[in-house]
Design a protein that fits this description.
- The chain folds into three domains: about 130 residues, Rossmann fold, CATH 3.40.50; about 55 residues, SH3 type barrels; about 80 residues, Beta Barrel (Elongation Factor Tu (Ef-tu), domain 3).
- About 25% of the residues lie in helices and about 30% in strands.
- It contains eight helices and 17 strands.
- A hairpin with a 5-residue loop joins strand 8 and strand 9.
- Helix 1 crosses helix 7 and helix 3 packs antiparallel against helix 4.
- It is globular, with a radius of gyration of 21 Å.
Length: about 325
């Protein structure tokens, strides 16, 4: 008798292929999560095509409380939030586990490109997927109690292979375009989303490091550290956002040379492959959702970890996530402050 598993089925090709692969070994129930923007039809069509049970769950209130409201507050505070990494441990996976508890399923799954195994100490470990598609960065906030129940069937595949599998399986969304935007802001215009909700910030001055006024900006919620495009300021060189000062409604511009730093500080630590850190440790760090990793040393300091990079890293950004790696194993993560 197959063990039960709840799969988060979005209606995209990744979770659809995950469903087909998982059905070989598990008794799969598909769960589509409603955020109020539609999309149920594609998910239901995939479940029908695979003859799998289909359920839907309403996560709108949890998404608003745990992700949307903090997302807006972060921009008002001059930070750049990372909503997917906020959502996974607080909304998405708890919703999957809630249904799993209801039907007696020991496991939950998604179509993320990552792997999960068990370390020699019995802890669940999160590992990178294939380099072209690795999504371990976005999963690095999952605590042990969630990660230990996760299955990631696409960890050994690349996206091109998944597309080919979808076509060979006759899955109806095989050629559906990927969704690259924030799920609750499908047009990608987060500034307009903030403004519609009354979370915009007042205009203020662009200034240089010495405080000289260079022009006027449209509100600090429109800018992030390292940004170059859309500033509308001309001068002797290209300008980049090098700091945001919400208390003064100022956006500091520079030539970008000061964006490269060798230290960063993180808090709200989530240790994955180890129970904690009590001494300095060498690793690599990702400061954003990209393939770029920087060699670094972690220095534990109570509720914080200070990161010393061996070569300067560009613009570690408050509100973003620093994820610590040892080879392909996620050691842990922390929010950059």
């Amino acid at each position: 008798m197959k063990e039960k598993l709840v799969l988060g089925l979005s209606g995209g090709v990744d979770s659809a292929v995950a469903a087909r692969l998982l059905a070989r070994d598990y008794d799969v129930t598909c769960l589509w999560l409603d955020i109020g923007l539609g999309g149920e039809e594609d998910a239901a069509a995939v479940a029908r095509s695979l003859d799998l049970p289909f359920r839907k769950g309403d996560i709108r209130s949890a998404l608003e409380r745990e992700v949307c409201a903090p997302f807006a507050a972060a921009y008002q505070a001059g930070k750049t939030p990372l909503p997917c990494a906020m959502c996974n441990p607080a909304v998405k996976f708890p919703a999957l586990l809630a249904l799993a508890g209801e039907i007696g399923a020991p496991y939950v799954a998604t179509g993320h490109y990552a792997r999960r195994d068990t370390g020699p100490d019995g802890r669940a470990r999160l590992r990178k997927g294939k380099p072209a598609n690795d999504q371990s960065y976005m999963l690095a906030r999952l605590p042990q109690e969630i990660l230990s129940r996760c299955v990631f069937p696409l960890g050994d595949y690349e996206k091109t292979e998944v597309r080919e599998l979808a076509r060979s399986f006759g899955i109806p969304v095989a050629d559906k375009p990927d969704s690259m935007e924030i799920c609750f802001i499908p047009d990608g215009d987060y500034a307009a989303w903030l403004e519609r909700r009354g979370f915009s910030t007042p205009g203020g001055n662009f200034v240089d490091k010495e405080g000289h006024i260079l022009g006027r900006h449209k509100g600090i919620h429109n800018y992030t550290l390292g940004q170059r495009r859309g500033l509308g300021v001309s001068g002797p060189h290209r300008y980049f956002v090098s700091a945001i000062r919400p208390d003064r409604a100022e956006v500091v511009l520079s030539d970008g040379s000061d964006l490269y730093v060798s230290r960063a500080r993180c808090t709200a630590l989530n240790w994955v492959a180890l129970p904690g850190l009590t001494e300095d440790r060498t690793c690599t760090v990702r400061f954003r959702h990209s393939k770029a990793e920087t060699e670094a040393v972690l220095h534990p300091d109570g509720e914080f970890v200070d990161i010393s990079t061996l070569t300067p890293a560009r613009a570690p950004t408050p509100g973003q996530l620093a994820v610590f790696y040892e080879g392909d194993i996620v050691l842990g993560s922390g929010w950059i402050v």
